[in-house]
Amino acid sequence: MSTPTRTPTGAPAHLTGPGSGGVGDSAQRPDGVLKVRGEFAYGSDLWMEDMLWGVTLRSPHPYARVLAIDTSAATQLPGVHAVLTSEDVPGEKVYGLELADQPVLAVDVVRYQGEPVALVAADHPDTARRAAALIRVDYEVWEPVTDARTALGHPATDAVHESDAEVTELSRESAHLHPEGNLVRHLKVRTGDPQPTADVVVVGEYEVGMQDQAFLGPESGLAVPADDGGVELYVATQWLHVDQRQICSALGLPPEQVRLTLAGVGGAFGGREDLSMHVHACLLALRTGKPVKMSYNREESFFGHVHRHPATMRYEHGATRDGQLVYVKASIWFDGGAYASSTPAVVGNGGTMGIGPYVVPNVHVDCYGAYTNNPPCGAMRGFGSVQTAFAYESQMDALAAELGMDPVELRCRNAMEQGSATPTGQVIDSPAPVAELLRRLEAMPLPAEADGEVDLRDMPGGVSNTTHGEGVRRGVGYAVAYKNVAFSEGYDDYSTARVRLEVVGGEPTATVHTAAAEVGQGLVTVEQQITRTELGVEQVTVHPKDTTVGSAGSTSASRQTYVTGGAVKAACEAVRGQLLARAERLVGRSVPDLRLAGGQVVSDAEEIAVPLADLLGNEAVEETVQWRHRPTEAIDPETGQGFAHVQYAFSAHRAVVDVDTELGLVKVVEMACTQDVGKAINPQAVIGQIQGGTAQGLGLAVMEEILIRDGKVVNPSFTDYLIPTILDMPPMRVEVLEYADPHAPYGLRGVGEAPNISSGPAVLAAIRAATGLPLARVPVRPEHLTGTS
Amino acid sequence: MRLTCTVNGTEQQVDDVWEGESLLYVLRERMGLPGSKNACEQGECGSCTVYLDGLPVCACLVAAGQAEGRQVGTVEGLAGADALHPVQQAFVDAGAVQCGFCTPGLLVATHDLITRTGRPSDAETREALAGNLCRCTGYEKILDAVRLAADRMGADR
Q1: Which of A36, A736, B75, B149 could bond to B87 as cystine, CB 3.0-4.6 Å?
Q2: Looking at residue A266, what is its pLDDT?
Q3: H or E, element range at A422
Q4: In this model, does residue B53 exceed pLDDT 50?
Q5: A interface mutation test: which of B25, B58, B140 has the most A CBs within 10 A?
Q6: pTM score, whole prediction
Q7: Which residue of chain A is at minimal alpha-carbon distance from B47?
Q8: Are A252 and A296 found together in one domain?
């Protein structure tokens, strides 16, 4: 084997073009042409002369003491440049998004299968892998704790963590890790009568399996040692600055010496909010003095990022005979796995929004996040709201059946609207068209039933030729959901934007520079659109995303168009202020209707039109603005009351399914979605988010689950972990509503997560309608439908 | 070993290829053609789809040595000197590109589909592209792109 000889470096580029499209237009993305030419540089495409490849040795055991690590054989393999263990971590040995409790490399104990134990850098990836296999680790294997409720019920004997975690300044929440046990967070919501009674009561227990983000671009990046003793890291991630803080802590270096640039990101969906190879590649680069690339393969990816929390939920709904909700009691257990990650915030969402978008006078919710020896769980699109939606929407259907009432009618009768109070005492102060979303879905035509000639491809089982329609029953189901947008519970949530306007080649050209991660959703397009609209110019360049500008916060919680969009708008307004002042100085008087349009400063009243090229000459105008949404507040720890969330997103789905009741096979025939987006900044991208989110919700309903046996992952591959293919996805109807939120830039509402929340419960409801089975667990598997489980 | 093959019409020769390397690895790491993507490296996702002697294959499942003396076509070879291929343009126009990691493989698979069938029905498209996973789009806009590309390519005939 020899060193790979030549490939391009693929440093992240400035994005220019397409040259048109303001707010509200379906502008084309500036990276689209690069992506279809195969020239867009993803993290795994990066390359430098003389670079090394890093690989990770991971624990095969979910719970064990590390007795000894012998690296001598690995170190002696030709081509190997470094072998590192936790002793080689110069700074803090543990890190974490909210609580610093996760070792950079295992220290004494491993708490989940796949926990990183050692690192190797070598001149060829296979040499590095062979060297990793030569590292000898002696373990004393322990019995893993694999059930969240068990973990909480027996803290004295099953403590996964023996000591308290440090609560860092990264903490979003007032969460505390209990040193004596496995409770990460317990959230309580208490409102109304603690002992309510009702005419009709339905009780259900529900379970949601562990879902994987399954982004296609693997965890990857390139760390380059710098002359100042620091490191440059090019990495596919969701939040450069929170990475930087954790890397600095582990390396014992100040932020000036740890500089991050966003590499091309092949999808994220929450799975890149935690560190993966970041610190590891930096450690290897600093030790070897050479650039080090790390890129996980798919199996390692399943162990290399957090997953969606599996949940167990017990719900009790009480209502009057005419279908008015009287009370909801709920207990929700999230399995957080071995380390905290964002479990406290997931518990926050699950608990505060756990009864759905309904008005209920009496609410009693307990929501728990627990440590176990299962894989760590954290952020995934929908973040704590996906799991509870399966439970509360199943309960609404059960209640409707008990009352003999139409399920949509029951939902509409109890739907939140503007002015309603949430169970946490927050009055909804922007449009909340919950009932309208459902009514609009109901009004859409249903797909035709199959008649006459049967196309196998439309049947459950498809071309496997398992049915020609015998035993196939159709079902229709509805669901509605809501989710907070942006960070909640008093978190200081902001973004930073730098906008520069100058004349390039005679054309006024703006450059927008933020650290906001583009992960595929199209934020770079939105940044251009806002800049075009606010500055009246066509040419807008998107600067590479890096840490030379302030934090933009995370690309998560449906927040970037709102928060970074707001920051870009504010920076443009500051630039505009300077330009208009300059124009007024030029004409020597105040002109009230002065504005920017078509590359000029114009006044219609005074017939002024000064080209920006003339106004600027060789000078540039630049402004950097930090922008915040209105503050939220921490909730009361005993009652859950407080202004916890800045904005809510609402969506509803109708699913139509055909079920082969003999074989338990499901074919989703059609998905329809209605969603209020406040203002569609880019309608094409908004619809893309709704369609993609719908697919991930459908996946969780019928196929996607990381299967765990005794703390070990059974299916870490795309052979065995199934995500929807183009054959699994049906045609979709999408209707977008635009009721402006007066508190948000342009009235917009975060888009990405809501459709991921309502789609799965609608599919589950449709399968129940087709089969008449209660179905209290997702994903639904054939054996659940045939009584053979 | 030494590997010689023709990639996108140009003869390529690389030395010191380890026998365990895949065609995907050699394209990406030795020939400077990282357009074909490494999403699963086990033949499940289609992101590395390339032409091998005119037939679409997963480059991750082809041992590099199997490409000896053969014709390889990758996403980098689709566009002309000045303009995108209609399939590429249709993916951009239809909004079928989000993160874009599946895109190179889908472009090659779609190019093959339209070349073979002219104007595929939606059912044919779903069958032909069932081996290409996309996690972002829910596939609706990919179907839009295939229809758009087929229409435009038909108009060109």
Answers
A1: B149
A2: 98
A3: none
A4: yes
A5: B140
A6: 0.96
A7: A216
A8: yes
Q: Given pLDDT bands bounded at 50, 70 and 90, which one contains residue A161?
A: low
Residue A527 shares a structural domain with residue A460: no
Residue A388 has pLDDT above 60, yes or no: yes
Interface mutation target, options A36, A463, A719, chain B, most CBs of B under 10 Å: A36
Q: Are residues A623 and A718 in the same domain?
A: no
Whether the CB of B126 is below 8 Å from some CB of chain A: the reply is yes
Q: Are A756 and A748 in contact (CB under 8 A)?
A: no
pLDDT of residue A1: 36
Instruction: For residue A587, give the CATH number of its domain.
Output: 3.30.365.10
> Which residue segments constitute the domains of chain B, with CATH numbers given?
3-77 (3.10.20.30), 86-156 (1.10.150.120)
Cβ distance B97 to A32 less than 8 Å, yes or no, reads yes
The confidence band for A208, taking pLDDT boundaries of 50, 70 and 90, is very high
Query: Average pLDDT in the B112-136 region?
Result: 97
Q: What angle do CA B141, B147, B150 make, to 5 degrees?
A: 140
Strands A600-603 and A608-611: antiparallel
Best CA proximity match to A25, nearest among A726, A685, A740, A764: A685
- CA A566-A570-A574 angle, to 5 degrees, is 170
Is B153's pLDDT higher than 90? yes
Cα–Cα distance measured from residue A332 to residue A95, given in angstroms and rounded to the nearest whole number: 27
Contact B39 A216 (CB under 8 A): yes
What does pLDDT average to over chain A? 94
Bridging pattern class, strands A712-713 and A708-709: antiparallel
What is the DSSP track for A29-65? PTTHHHHHHT---BGGG---TT-EEEEEEE-SSSSEE
Cα–Cα distance for residue pair A152/A429, rounded to 1 Å: 38
Which of A45, A217, A685 is closest, CB to CB, to B39? A217
Question: Do residue A128 and residue A73 come from a single domain?
Answer: yes
Mean pLDDT for A91-98 is 95
Closest CA to A635 of A183, A188, A185: A188
Residues 2..21 of B with a Cβ closer than 8 Å to A: which? 14-16, 18, 20-21
Range of the domain at A552: 494-628
Region B64-77: mean pLDDT is: 98
Task: State whether residue B83 sits within 8 Å of chain A by CB.
Answer: no
Given a cut of 80, whether residue B2 has pLDDT beyond it is yes
For residue B134, give how far its alpha carbon lies from the nearest alpha carbon of chain A (Å).
Answer: 7
Q: HSE-up of A675 (CA within 13 Å, CB side)?
A: 35
Which pLDDT score is estimated for A9? 55
Residue A726, CA atoms < 13 Å, CB-side half-sphere: 27
Backbone angles phi, psi at A406, to 5 degrees: -65, 130
- How far apart, in Å, are the Cα atoms of A496 and each of A476, A516, A625, A628? 45, 9, 6, 9
| Whether the predicted interface score ipTM is above 0.85 | yes
Give the separation between CA A107 and CA A85, rounded to whole angstroms: 9
Written as one string, the DSSP assignment of A264-327 is B----TTTTSS-SSHHHHHHHHHHHSS-EEEE--HHHHHHHS-BPPPEEEEEEEEE-TTS-EEE
Helix pair B86-94, B103-117: axis angle to 10 deg: 120
Shared domain for A520 and A610, answered yes or no, is yes
Q: Does the structure show a pLDDT above 60 at A154?
A: no
Query: How many domains in chain A?
Result: 3
Which residue in B15, B29, B138 is closest to A692 by CB distance?
B138
Pairwise CA distance, residues A753 & A649, whole Å: 8
Distance from B143 to chain A by nearest Cα, in Å? 9
Q: Which residue of B has its CA nearest to A42?
A: B101
A175 has pLDDT over 80? no
Tell me the Cα Rg of chain A: 27
